[in-house]
Amino acid sequence: MDCPTCHKSLESESLHGQTVDRCVTCNGLWLDHSELGPVVRNTRPSQAPAKPIACVDGIACPRCNESLAAFNYAHDSGVFISKCDSCGGVWLETGQLELIAQYRSGSPAIQRLGNAMADEMLAANKLQFARRLLRSRLLSGIVAIGYLLFIVLATGSLQSVLSLLLGLMLPMVCIWFPDAMGNLKGISLGFARPMITETTPGDFVAIGGWLLLLCPAAMALMVRT
Ligand SMILES: [Zn+2]
Ligand SMILES: [Zn+2]
Q1: What is the residue extent of each domain of the chain?
Q2: CA of 73 to the centre of ligand 1 (A)
Q3: From CA 92, how far away is CA 200, in angstroms rounded?
Q4: I want to staple 77 with a disulfide (CB 3.0 to 4.6 A). Which of 33, 73, 85, 182 is the partner?
Q5: What is the pTM of this model?
């Protein structure tokens, strides 16, 4: 096949898994009907502002010699490429492929906004995961049952188990109901040293609960008293 504009022989090359034909002189690109989609989908948009690149009038299809018609890619992209109505192949002037990719991805500004939004959502998801972990009833329940089993096996004393249960109450309530606990004001829970004297955001309450729960020394203290 020859280049429709400079009539030099086109050279086959592999582009995004497709065997396409390129003119080494003008850098134009011939894509058969089935090749346009995969190539466009895998082309990174150019970050430079789009300058229209016109197709050349009156050129013939390198495959079937029919004359190529100007075709507005996706009907409203403003990127006019040359298309053969007979075989469905397209001829892209150099730079037009990047313009099509840019049209598909929106303007560089919109793309940056999209990327920023995606990053933000990812960060929010991570935060959400951390908060769920922080307030996990299952996880804290397993830790509490672990303590109880340990005390039962180690001491076998009902007194110790009861005092541990009492000791576990504060951290467990903090983890299970952090928001309700955070909104308590000026209440002393009596059996425990920490006094909740001002509104605390639920997350901090849950963190406090975990610190207490994961401190075996604190738990040992509960059992002894
Ligand atoms: Zn050429
Ligand atoms: Zn053709």
Answers
A1: 11-106, 132-224
A2: 21
A3: 63
A4: 73
A5: 0.49
d(CA 131, CA 38) in angstroms, rounded, equals 41
Residue 89 CA to ligand 1 center (angstroms) comes to: 16
Exposure string for 26-47, b = 16+ CB within 10 A, e = fewer: eebbbbbeebbeebbeebebbe
Each residue's pLDDT tens digit, 173-207: 988 888 877 666 545 555 544 555 444 577 888 88
DSSP state of 10: P
CB contact set of 224 (below 8 Å; sequence gap of 6+): 163
Alpha carbon distances (Å) from 113 to 104, 106, 109, 116 = 15, 10, 6, 5
Distance 168 CA to ligand 1 centre (A): 79
Give residue-wise pLDDT tens across range 64-83. 999 999 999 888 888 999 99
Q: Which residue has the tokens 């690149």?
A: 53
